[in-house]
Amino acid sequence: MQEKDILPTVPMRDGFGEALLELGHKNKDVVVLTADLEESTRANLFADAFPNRFFELGVAEQNMMGIATGMALTGKIPFVCSFAVFSPGRSWDQLRVGVCYSKANVKVIGGHTGFSAGGDGATHQALEDIAITRCLPNLAVVSPANARQAYQAVFAIAQHAGPVYLRISRSAPYHLTGTLTHELTKDKFEFGKAQVLKKGKDVTLFATGLMVAEALIAAEQLSKDGIDAEVLNIHTIKPLDDEAVLASLQKTGAAVTIEEHQRAGGLGSAILEVIAGKVTIPIELIGVADHFGETGDPAQLAAKHGLTSAKMVKAAHKVIGEKTCRTMIFC
Known about the structure:
Strand content: 15-25%
Shape: globular
Distance between the termini: 56 Å
CATH class of the largest domain: Alpha Beta
Number of domains: 2
CATH architecture of the largest domain: 3-Layer(aba) Sandwich
Low-confidence stretches: none
CATH topology of the largest domain: Rossmann fold
Number of strands: 12
Mean pLDDT: 93
Number of helices: 12
């Protein structure tokens, strides 16, 4: 599969798997490790093509991270593939002390993030992985919006010297209208640079992962309400593009963030850390409100927890109202 053939309806993990296969052809130093989940993470494509550079470690994520560290320190570029709840979830200590402390060139791939694990339930739905990775020194955190961007991100993180956590969903975006298809794929992925998908002047919508599609849908709806929303895809959560964030907020003066992750410690928290002491604006954070996931359809679970374009529209009206209120004597 070529990049041009990867449509928005393709599951994100498929875009990752195709890119990893192509990267294997281009760079002989790339090796892949999995913990009994090669097919689910789509690492099986690499395994079939390069069996001598593929390592199945069994259900032993901590050991896998340690082996990857050793490989990286000998010049290899290990891609460590598992579900995010297990890696970095179960292997966080080895990621911290082995990979990050050593600045080892390991690429940690956390699959089935957010609610995308669906029927596997709460134990397999990673809603805390951004928080536990972005706090680690030396570790970059990347969260692409769809399969095509995941494909592009694989090559970008392979070029980045140092540890990276790549957050991958099992699914394609839950909702995406035809008119928005081009917006998510028109620009190349640039590591560390936020993607301005739509310019606007009234409110900024910050989104990451599958929620970028929801933000674009929300912007369309807001335009019908006479509101000009700016949409930023924050695909690199760390290092965050502070300049783009502040430039947008200085223009719009109000913001809404959305992520398929706990509201604590994720994208919204990162945005707040950037603006603290620099700009004073009304801002609403949309994320999972201190709950575990549960068994069910991923799109329905996201909707149950308010991770929708409709929730963004409501939040945008709220912050715009608060912005207007601040300019008046009485509200």
